[in-house]
Each structure stands twice: as structure tokens, then as C-alpha cells.
Fold this protein.
Amino acid sequence: MNVHTPGAARRRSVRRGRAAAALAALALVAGCATGSGEASAADAEGTIGLLLPEAKTARYETTDRPTFVGVVERRCPTCEVLYANAAQDAANQQQQAESMLARGADVLVLDAVDTTAAASVVAEAQRLGVPVIAYDRFVAGADYYVSFDNELIGYLMGESLVGAVLARAEEDPPPDGRRPGVLLVHGSPTDPNSAALAAGAHRALDGEDIDVLAEYDTPDWSPDKATEWVEGQLTQYPGRVDGVLAASDGIAGGAIAAMKAAGLDPVPPTTGQDGELAAVQRVLTGDQYMTVYKATTQQARTAAELAVRLLRGQDPQATAVIDGVPSLLLAPRAVGPDDVRRVIVDGGVHSADEVCTRYYVDACLRTGVLEAAS
């Protein structure tokens, strides 16, 4: 049921008048597209802008975007969706947001490249009466926030790493009686989620018989930069790296590449998060110790539903409040080899065919993802 408020209707009318004048001189920046049918702007119930930060993390283009657009299409067939991916460029994202506002966006869903810089996007949108949903990454002043409990994710990774490192140290004690050592490879310093992840990881590590050798904030969550940093730490701490807390599956892939290149066999326990296909396959083979699966499909559905409700003038209820921002937080799940069938395959995240390609068939049989032919 459509529920409009007179104030919301007036704001949409004002914005669309402004947009009509602006469109003669302004084309939508590269990367934006209409994703909700053939309804004209005049006939559309409203316009929703979706701004994602980058494409190096596979989930954004393969899961978040199509799920979000699909839900909007079903819930609001005459709504228009504007889409842009900033390719890790905060200035580019600023331009994309301004363009969407000029085109008359009624709601912005923003996964910020730089959450500090994104404050200006929030301020401009709210000046125009456009609510902003901070998606995945917290942005101060947003109207709503949809994400996961990131401190809990960090704690799950840290707890898993502690268990794995101490178990291996018990089986094969480090030489000279030293304590096991780990590297902490955090996410981007411009992403507040990184701080929450790090806080959770430290909470799990505090008081344990483990030395944190070094920590690194990975610019742009870049796997390549993670590889370079881990290579340097392996040189600085030869034979002393017994585990790596990697803040994402992409960073985990970069860290694992560095350790393999250095000849570490087996690779020390390494964490990750996102449940990316390549990471799930690494978990099955033992190259990556675990990942934390975040139901990104559910997250995108939640954000899309919230955007439609805000567009219609409704006032959705939040499950939490973070720094004054009403928030909807989803629960993550730790995934090891024995969890892949139940959480990933049966949960519809990746199919058995996708996971168990030729190289991974033996690992899939060993962990029960596939059943041996009788």
C-alpha cells in the first residue's frame, strides 16, 4: 500500500522541477543506469539512488546490486533506480551523488568510499529533503543505517584465530619457548567498519598467550596492498608468523598469496569475511582457516525495502540506534570447512557446482559438500 505524506509529495515536486532544469546541461555520470523497468520519470512513483563503493569486492556487483534492484522492481514496479559504482574514488562518488540528486532522487542508499567525505553528501541530500540510508558502512548523520554487527564479526574472526593458533602451538610448540605471533591486517582506515572489526578482534585476542607482531590498515581494502605489507612482515619476522587476522576475504587472499610465495606450507591460519566464492574454496582446501558469512542478499533486500518505505513517506522501525542513527543490524555467521554445505550451499549463497569445480572436488567430497557416488 502506498502511504504518502503531503510534505514528502511537495519535496518530490520541488526536486523534480529542479531536476528538469538541470538535466538539459547535466548527463548522468558514467556508471549510472536505470534498473526498474520502462516507466518514464513523470509516471514513476519515485526515484531511488544506489551508490556502491567499488568492484574489487565481488559481492557488490554479483549480489548487492542485482538483489537491491530486483526487490525495488517487485515492491515498486514504477520506481526508478539510479545506480553508480565509484571504483574506490571518493570524489567520483561525490559527483555521482550530486548527479542523482539533480535527477530528482527521492532516497539515496550510500555505501561510502570515504565515510568522512560522505558527510557532505548526507548534508546536501538532507538540505533537499532526501533521506539517506548508510549501507554497509556507517556515515554520521544518515537517516538510517543497514549493516551487520561489525564488532561481532571481528570477534568471531579473532576467536577463531586464537583457537587455531593455540591448537597448533600445542601440537608444535614455537622454538625457544616464545609465544605464537600473529599479524592483524585491518580494513581501510577511511571505513569506520574497520575500527569496529579491529575492536572485536582485539577483544578476542586480549589476555591470550599470543603476541601481535604488527598491525596494518589496508588502504581501499586492497588485496594487492595487503600482499605487499605481509611480504614485508614475513621478512621482518622470519619464522614467527603463526597466524593472520585478515579483515576481509579479499585481504585474506592477498595475505595468503604472500605467505605461499614465501614458501610457508601449510599456510598459517588466516581469517576472512564476506563468504566470497574464492574464499569458500580456500576454506575447503585449508588455505584459509575460516570466513564470516554475511547474508549480503538479506542486507540488500533490507535496504531496498527500507528505501521504498521511506520513498512512500513511511517511518520504519529500527532495531538499534548507533551514534544517533536508527539502525538495522543483521547477524553474521562463522564458516569453517564443515559449515560450507549447511551455510553456503544449502543457504543458497553459492551452489555446489560453483564451489566444487574440478580443482576442488576432492575437498568437497572430504567435507561433505558433495556426496561420493555409490
